[in-house]
From TrEMBL:
Cofactor(s) this protein cannot do without: Mg(2+)
Sections of the chain in a coiled coil: none
Annotated GO MF terms: hydrolase activity
Keyword Metal-binding set for record: no
SUPFAM superfamilies named in the record: Nudix
All residue ranges annotated as the Nudix hydrolase domain in the record: 32-161
InterPro entries: Nudix_hydrolase, NUDIX_hydrolase-like_dom_sf, NUDIX_hydrolase_CS, NUDIX_hydrolase_dom
Pfam families: NUDIX
PROSITE patterns the record matches: NUDIX, NUDIX_BOX
Keywords: Hydrolase
Domain of life: Bacteria
Protein name: ADP-ribose pyrophosphatase YjhB, NUDIX family
Gene3D superfamilies, A to Z: Nucleoside Triphosphate Pyrophosphohydrolase
Amino acid sequence: MTTDQQPHALATGPLDVRLLALEPGPEERTFGDAPVTYALVALRHEGRLLLVLERERGTWELPGGGIDPGETPRVAAARELREEAGQVIAPEALRFVGFSKTAFADRPVAYGAVFAAETTAVRPFTPNEEIAAIHWWSGEPEIPGGLLQTVDTYLAERARSTPPA
């Protein structure tokens, strides 16, 4: 597909990531053109958004990752939040926002389940093999240490404006 044939992106980001759509639920929805392979969490505390610095990509992004076999996207989202950022939110406390349809430079198009939550209790973070740091983002255009994944910040803003189901 040439550049002029690519679908219009809602948002673009570093590493040639393109958000093609934010699709509504239900959470159990499936898609004929690509699988739901990942889950993301837009977690806020006192109005600030949690971002993680992913070591390999060098980008500040929403906590999240792959859905394990037999795992629901909601459970995967809570697990990834805990593993990547040390923050604990019960799966049932997450608010389902929708499905992001994302094009990546080095992988096929995939869907991700997007969830949102608020927390009053921030837990300490310990860097790990995958995540170098966390940052409670207040909207600054740059964060030292990595590139800001603007596709994720776009999704987080949409999550903020999406009413509960």
